[in-house]
Amino acid sequence: MNDTALLIVPTVTIYEVFKVILRESSENEALQAAAAMRKGTVVDLTDSLAIASSKLSLEHNLPMADSIILATAKEFDATIWTQGSIVSPIKSYSVVSVIKTSRISPTSALPLVT
C-alpha cells in the first residue's frame, strides 16, 4: 500500500505492533513502526466503538484487540490487513493475511486499509 492516507489505524494496533517489535527487535524499530502507522488515519477507541467491539467479542468469542480491529473495520468499511491470526467471523468483511517475515519492518506493520 503506497497511499498511507487511506490507512485506518485503530490505536490498539499501534499498541500491539509496538509491543511485538519491541519484544522481537528494539525500541528504535518499534518507534519507527509506530511513526509509520501514524501516517495513516489513527482511530481512537470511542465509546461507540467500544460498545460495538464488546458486542462483537461476545457474539463471536473474539479477544479484545481483535474485536476492536473488526469493529473499526466495520465502521470504516475497511479491509483488514494483518500479519497476525485475526479471522473475520463476519463473512462480509475481508481479512487479508500478509505473510509474516522473520523481521517485521515498520512499513509492513500497517493493519487496516480501506
Architecture, CATH level 2?
Answer: 3-Layer(aba) Sandwich
Order of helical and strand elements: EHHEHHEEE
Unreliable stretches, pLDDT < 50, 5 or more residues?
Answer: 97-110
Give, in spatial order, the strands making up the sheet with the most strands: 4-3-5
Q: By helix and strand content, what is the structural category?
A: alpha/beta
Q: Average pLDDT, to the nearest integer?
A: 79
Number of helices, where a helix is a run of at least 4 consecutive DSSP H or I residues? 4
Give the number of DSSP strands: 5
Account of the protein in words:
By secondary structure, the chain is an alpha/beta fold. The protein has one domain (4-113): 3-Layer(aba) Sandwich (Rossmann fold). Helices cover 46% and strands 13% of the residues. The protein is built from four helices and five strands, in the order E-H-H-E-H-H-E-E-E. It has helices spanning 11-24, 27-37, 47-60, 64-76, and strands at 8-10, 41-43, 79-82, 95-97, 112-113. The protein has a three-stranded mixed β-sheet, covered by helices on one side. Helix 3 (47-60) packs across helix 4. The longest helix is centred in the N-terminal third of the chain and has 14 residues, at 11-24. Residues 97-110 have low confidence and may be disordered.
Please provide a brief summary of the model.
This protein is globular. It has helices at residues 11-24, 27-37, 47-60, 64-76; strands at residues 8-10, 41-43, 79-82, 95-97, 112-113. Helix content is 46%, strand content 13%.
